[in-house]
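Action item from last week, closing it out:
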Amino acid sequence: MASGLGLRLVENGFRVLYQRTASLVQKLQAARRVLALDAAIGKLFKYHLLILEDFSYVTSEGAATSVLFELIGARYENRSLLVIANEPFSAWSKIFGSDAMAVAAVDRLVHRSHIFELNVESYRRRAAAAARRAEAGKRGGKKKRERDGNAMTRSERHRPCPRTRPKTRL
């Protein structure tokens, strides 16, 4: 849904950056180490929308959450931010390491925002389950043929019977 929204915005002339949150946090941490965090965050302002995927997977170490909080604060009421997370807001203290920072981040994110809460099964999980069922079906079909004894596979049906092959003489 987020990638579709981003694509639609790009088609309408907007600039969009879609990135995993952990990757962006690593880049911002590197910028902070060389004292260029403000410049790195400033470069992100050229994007009308910043889509952060896998937000819940950021480690709760102080440096990581600090740059993430600074990014949220910088974009607050200036540019759009779309966050994809599989954790409810109540669990975000694990991401930010403290309740106070989590509440402040959530406060900035939900103010003047649209929240889409999807309580559906992951399409990746659904595809993996379907693949497992298909594989089990293949194995189950083989076992059935082994049990029946007289069932033949397609390749077996098209092989000539050993009795009907012409004998070669040496």
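Closing note: DSSP finds eight helices and three strands in the chain.
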